[in-house]
Amino acid sequence: MKILVTGSNGQLGNEMRRVATESCAEHEFIFTDVAELDITDAGAVLEAAKGVGAIINCAAYTNVDAAEDNEDIAHLINATASANLAAAAKAEGALLIHVSTDYVFGGDGNTPRTEDLPTNPLGVYGRTKLAGEQAIIASGCRHIIIRTAWLYSVHGKNFVKTMLSLMATRPSLNVVFDQVGTPTYAGDLADVIGTIINTPAPAEGVYHYSNEGVCSWYDFAVAIGQLAGSPCVVAPCHSCEFPSKVTRPAFSVLDKTKIRTTFNLSIPHWHASLTHCIDKLK
Ligand SMILES: NC(=O)c1ccc[n+]([C@@H]2O[C@H](COP(=O)([O-])OP(=O)(O)OC[C@H]3O[C@@H](n4cnc5c(N)ncnc54)[C@H](OP(=O)(O)O)[C@@H]3O)[C@@H](O)[C@H]2O)c1
Predict the structure, then answer these.
(1) If 78 and its partner were Cys, which of 128, 158, 246, 253 is the partner (CB 3.0–4.6 Å)?
(2) In whole angstroms, how far apart are CA 140 and each of 8, 81, 105, 216, 225?
(3) pLDDT tops 90 at residue 109
(4) Which residue, 129, 120, 66, is CA-closest to 252?
(5) CB-based burial label for 258 (10 Å; 0-12, 13-18, 19+)
(6) 191 neighbors 16 (Cβ within 8 angstroms)
(7) Ligand 1 nearest atom to the CA of residue 57, by list position
(8) Given pLDDT bands bounded at 50, 70 and 90, which one contains residue 149?
(9) Active site annotation includes 103
(10) pLDDT at 24 over 90
(11) What pLDDT does residue 46 have?
(12) Which domains does the chain carry?
């Protein structure tokens, strides 16, 4: 099968490059990022998708804070461009695998989020990502939407790399303990997308995926420091100590039962995947 990947210079896109040489080696991949294919260009997307059996959308406007001041561009990339990809998938009869976010939910409650729970985004990023999901579903194209959370990898900018660089220069750090969720290693998510690609007629719909387990950003930072052998002291603090335009969900644990059972997955615990990532960064 011919597969178009968008946003392939990002965290997830880079991991899809690895999957293309491993579990999906029999498929023909076309890797693009904005220089080769700007997904906001509907005509270019239609052209690039000619003859493909699947599109994997790893492109997005992912700067949650900057989105608050740039709603137009965030909406263009996260919503309008998702509609472009859906239209191209529909025209080709291709499967669109699209990645969304836990930020489509508000942060209230304390039970893991299932796919059918009502959405309630708290900011521009979540609103525009939700609009992207809705445009894909409304298009009638074959689609799988995977909502994920707290994504990190050896590529690009992310919490793990930020913590490692701060820990290298500071004796101590304060990290919030009142936001709880589950980290997701982009390599694990890319492997799941590979499994879906290799599944004949995969069940369409919305799925949740993160690593297993639950932690606060504080717990995550402590584990990063321990695995890196850093002497930096990590202390817990409240979110209000880091004023931001964005209200982040206080509780955003995703329930992965649906994706685990549908695709017979064994999902790694977040600490095991973090260990793997830190080893690679070393
Ligand atoms: N990062 C997280 O913590 C997180 C959490 C939950 C869900 N997600 C979702 O997971 C998916 C993958 O995220 P990620 O962290 O891998 O993203 P990322 O590292 O920010 O990569 C996104 C890629 O898309 C590219 N891009 C931006 N605008 C584009 C356009 N108009 N046309 C084509 N490519 C464009 C970016 O290029 P530039 O860098 O040049 O802009 C970048 O290479 C996204 O859908 C994101 O919303 C991420």
Answers:
(1) 128
(2) 25, 16, 23, 38, 46
(3) no
(4) 120
(5) middle
(6) no
(7) 45
(8) very high
(9) no
(10) yes
(11) 98
(12) 2-153+184-212+253-268 (3.40.50.720)
What pLDDT score was predicted for residue 107? 80
On whether the CB atoms of residues 184 and 210 are closer than 8 A, the answer is yes
* Cα–Cα distance for residue pair 97/111, rounded to 1 Å: 27
CA of 92 to the centre of ligand 1 (A): 24
pLDDT at position 43, please?
A: 98
* Cβ of 187 less than 6 Å from ligand 1: no
Q: How confident is residue 162, by pLDDT bands cut at 50, 70 and 90?
A: very high
Place of tokens 């740039």: 70
Q: Is the distance from the beta carbon of residue 39 to the nearest atom of ligand 1 less than 6 Å?
A: yes
Alpha-carbon distance of 83 to 127, in angstroms, equals 15
First to last CA, the chain: 36
